[in-house]
Write a structure and sequence with these properties.
Two copies of one chain form a homodimer. Chain A has 121 residues and is mostly helical. Chain A has one domain: Winged helix-like DNA-binding domain superfamily/Winged helix DNA-binding domain (Arc Repressor Mutant, subunit A). Chain A is built from six helices and three strands, in the order H-H-H-E-H-E-E-H-H. Chain A has a three-stranded antiparallel β-sheet. The N terminus of chain A is likely disordered. Chains A and B meet through helix 2 and helix 6 of A and helix 2 and helix 6 of B.
Chain lengths: 121, 121
C-alpha cells in the first residue's frame, strides 16, 4: 500500500476548483458581473501575483467577502490556496486566456474605461 | 400649446431603455451571463438586424422569455421597439462598442469557442 495520509492531509484544506475544461463562459461572466468581484479581479490583474483575502478592503462583512471569493473560485476566475494561515488568491489568467483569448483583457479594459468616466470612482 | 397627443401615444408603447452613458459594465456582464440570453445575443449578432421575440425558439415559457429580453434591454444590451404587433429586438452594438471597445466581440468569440468544444451544443 502507498501512504495516503499526506494526500488526505493536504486534501482536507484544499478548496474545490473547476478544471480548465469545466470553466463555462456564462459562469465567468456571472462572476465578473458584480462590482466587488470585478474590483477584486482588477486588483489581482494589476498586481499580477497572489493576494490574501485580507489584502482587499471590501466594504462588506467577512461572510459576504468570503461569498464573493467563493463565486470567483467556483466559476474558475481565481485559484484559492491556503499558505500557512492565509488564504491566497490568484487570477487564473492562463486558463482564461487559453479558453477565451482576449476576454479577460477586454473586460479589464472596459472596467478601466468605466472607472475613468466622469462621476465614477 | 403644442400638441402632445402623438408623443403621448407613442410613449405609452415605448419601453424604457438606459441611455448610453447609463449602461454599466457589470449590468452588461450580468445580462450576458445566462445561457439563453447569451444565445439571444449571439443570434442577434449573427443576423445583424432586428429580430422579433417570436423569432427565437427558446425552451422556456413566454413569461420567462419576456423576462430574459427585459434583462437584456434594461442592461443596455438590446433595444426593444414595437413595430405594429411585433416586439422587435436589436443589439445595441454601436453603444456597446463605443463604451467598451472589443468587449462584445470578445464575448461572442468566447461563446463561439465554447460552442465548438467537444460535447457542447
Amino acid at each position: 500500500m502507498t501512504p495516503t495520509a499526506p494526500a488526505t492531509s493536504v486534501g482536507s484544506r484544499a478548496l474545490p476548483h473547476p478544471a480548465r475544461e469545466e470553466i463555462r463562459l456564462e459562469g465567468v461572466l456571472h462572476a465578473l458581473s458584480d462590482p466587488l468581484r470585478l474590483q477584486i479581479v482588477r486588483e489581482l490583474a494589476a498586481d499580477g501575483d497572489e493576494l490574501s483575502c485580507s489584502h482587499f478592503c471590501l466594504p462588506v462583512t467577512k461572510s459576504t467577502s468570503t461569498h464573493h471569493f467563493r463565486v470567483l473560485r467556483e466559476n474558475g476566475v481565481v485559484r484559492q490556496v491556503y499558505r500557512g494561515t492565509a488564504k491566497m488568491n490568484g487570477l487564473r489568467r492562463d486558463d482564461l486566456d487559453d479558453l477565451f483569448p482576449g476576454l479577460l483583457d477586454s473586460v479589464l479594459a472596459a472596467a478601466d474605461r468605466q472607472a475613468a468616466r466622469p462621476g465614477n470612482s
